[in-house]
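Per reviewer request, we include the raw input and output of the structure prediction for the construct analysed in the revised manuscript.
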Amino acid sequence: MSNRRFSNPSLIAPSTNGRWGLKALPAIVLACATAATASAQANKAVSRSTDEGGWPNNDSYFSVISDDGRFIAFQSEASNLSGNDSNGSYDIFRRDIVKGTTDLVSVSTSGYAGNGLSMAPTISGDGRLVVFASSASNLISGDTNGQWDVFVRDMDTETTWRISVYSDGRQGNNRSDSPAITPDGRYIAFHSLVSFDSADTNGGYDVYLHDLNDGRTTLVSTTADGTVGNGDSIWPQISEDARSVVLFSGATNFVSGDTNGWSDVFVKDLLTGTIERVNVSSTGTQANGETIWPYISGDGSAVTFCSKASTLVTGDSNNNWDAFVHTMADGQTTRINVRPDGGQADSYTRSPTSLTGNGRYVAFASLATDLVDGDTNGMQDIFIRDLLNETTQRVDFGYEGDEVNDDCFVPDLTSDGRYLTMTSEARNLDYGFAWYTRNIYVTDLDAALYLTQDDLVRGHNAEFTAFACEPGETVYFVYSTKGLGNGPCPPQLGNLCLDLRDPVKTLGKAVADASGTAALTKKIPGSAPLIDVYTQAVARRGNKGSDSVKSHFVSATIMP
C-alpha cells in the first residue's frame, strides 16, 4: 500500500479502473500453493533500466507501489538504471510498468542527481508524488543544515521541495527521516530530531505530520493532553484519511501502566487526540519482549507488527519472532504466522508486513517451512494471510511455478490486494532476468499464466509464449492498441475481464505442449505504425468458461 515508508476494495465486483482485487486473490494464490508446477507467477523485475538492455550493477531495496499497481518506487545502489545517476550512492527511482520506464526521483527541480544518500521512499496512491529522506544538500536551494531531510518529488511537474520544515517554512537543525504519505498525497508523517513544535522538549526523535495544502507541521507523538512523549518515537505509518497514525516509541507516558521496559507500538487518533498501545494481548497484557515494524491498514481498522514477546497470545512458547495483528474495534491480538492447524511456526518472522486497505489480507515474509504444505526451499518466502478465513498462502513462486531459489522479503500490497512488490535475491522470478543482486519485483496475483514476447519489429517475426498452461489446452493471444483499463468480459471466458481496453483483437492461438507451454509466432507487418501494443494471454477452462484464466499484460512499442 502506498503509505509505507520505505477507499476499501469491493469483494464482489471489479473496481472502476478495471483492476480485479481481493475476490480473485485466494483462488489464484491457492492454485500456486497447492499445484506449483501447474501455475505461474506473473513476476516482473522492476529494478532495471528503461531500455531493459542491461541488468542493474548493484542492489535495490524497499519498494512501495501505487494503488493501481502501475508505479513502483524503490531505493537502489545501482548506477545504471537512469542516465542522469552520477553520484555513486543510494538513490530513489520510480518504475512505470506500463511504459517500461525507470526515472531517477532523487533529483533537484533542475534535474541534478542528489549529492548524498537518498532512502526510504513512499508513494502517493496515483504514483505522482514520491517522498523520500536524503542527506543531499543540492535538491533544493537554501539547504544549509547539513542534515537528513524529507523531500517530495512531483513526477508530473518535475519539481522537488522539502517538507521537513517548520510551519513557517524554516529548515530544521537536525535529522528527519522515515516518511509515509496518504494515498491522496496531502499528508506526510515522518520522524525527526528537530523540535518543530514548541511543545517538543524531550530532545529525542518525535513523529510529525506535514500538510501539503497549508504547510503546517504538527507534533503527533504526544499524550491525550498534548504532552510530548518522554522517549523516542519513530517509524510512523498513516491511515488513508490521515486520522490514525501508528508509531513505535520508547515513551512510557503515553498510556498508564507502561512498565515493560520495551519500546511499544501506539496508534494516535488525530481527531480525538487519544493514543492507544496496541502491541498488547487481547486482555491488555503488555509485551515482555521487543516489537518492531508497525503497519496500519488504509481504513485504520488493523495494525500489524513483529514481536519476540511471548505474552501477546496464549501458547507462544517458540522464543522466536512472530507477526501479529491487532484489530482496533475489539482490541483482539492474533498471531499471523501460524501453521494450518493453528500451531506455531518452526522458524522466525521478522520483516515489515503490509495490509490491504480494508485490513483483511496481510503480506509477510517468513523463514518458516510449515506455514503451508510443500515449502521445501529453505528460503525466506512471502505469504499472504486471510485474516477473515484464517488461511495462509505462499505467493513467491518462480515464473514456471517452482519454488524461489533465494530469499524474498519486505512485501508491499496494493490497497485492493492485486499487486505485490518485494525485494529478492532469487534468480528464477522473472523469465530471462537472473542476476546476482538484490532486485525489486512486482507480482500480479490475479494472473495464472505467464506471458513473454519478443521485441515487436517491423517486418520481423515475434514469438509470444505463455507458460504454466494445462497441456493440450488452447491459449488465445489478444492485444489492444488503446491501453489498459476496464476491458471486455467475454461470456465464453465465464465473464473473466481482460485488462486491455476495447477494441481487443486476437493475434492468434496455440495449443500448449506437454510441458504446459504455448507459443505463437506472428510477423509484424512492415507498414505497422510505431505505436504501443498491449498483449495478454487467456485460456478457457471449466464449464462454460467458469474457470478461465489470464496472464498479466505485456506492453511494447513497435520498432522500425
